[in-house]
Amino acid sequence: MSRSNLMRWCISSAFCKETLDQIYALYNRREFIHPDPLEFLHHYDDSLDREIVGMVASALAYGRVHQILKSVSEVLHRMGEYPSRFILDHSPPTIHERFSDFRHRFTGGAQLAALLCGIKGLIENHGSLKASFVMKCKPDDETILPGLTAFVEELTEEARDDLITLLPSPKKGSACKRLNLFLRWMVRSDDVDPGGWGGVGACKLIVPLDTHMHRIGIEAGLTCRKQADIRTALEITRAFREIVPEDPVRYDFALTRLGIRDISG
Fold first, then answer.
1. What is the mean pLDDT of the chain?
2. Distance of alpha carbon 249 from alpha carbon 180, whole angstroms
3. CA 230, CA 250: separation in Å to the nearest integer?
4. Domain, as residue range, for 223
5. Most exposed: 74, 107, 140, 242, by fewest CB within 10 Å?
6. Which of 42, 43, 16, 10 is nearest to 29 (CA)?
7. Closest to 193 measured CA to CA, from 60, 47, 48, 33
């Protein structure tokens, strides 16, 4: 079946688990990751390095994809072979100095350095970003949203910066696409998502709501909301949870790959 026909089938009344599983089998493969900032995570075996890289890569995942890859690559080059060692061995003033001339679209060196200092603070406080996040999640939470909100608050406090272009707060209604993307990478484990964050249930993840997923959600009748905000993300997530309760973001990568490749021909 052609990509165009698959897309039409996906957004028709045939939208069901059988259809989604076929799309997942076709597109949820390592060979389709590039170009995507997720690819950087697969270069790191150490869990602490990987979560730092994941946070940086997801935070900078806005704008044109080739610029995103260039910017993430530059940050990782400046941190050296072991990002966790760089973070823990350098003081905040040194981190700020190292990135003083960095820029990615609306993000300047000061804000990128503040994010890294926030990451440093959380690791020093809890041992890892995972430990910081897990302790904020409660067993009876329906989704990771309460934990994510508290995680952003602590990270922002440690950064001593509002980090507005990098860490939009769920409390302000943002869909938090990049943070939910980061959590998908960290929590799920398959041919695409490297995983490693035990203690967080995939069943509680929220769909990283981007343009392609929003369009699919509207055309498939998963939402009628025009705003791509956190309410829409939760609405689409609930629809996917009806199909696959244990893993509502299972099809995220495959569907966005299908959408991107369908648009590009």
1. 91
2. 10
3. 19
4. 1-32+207-265
5. 140
6. 42
7. 33
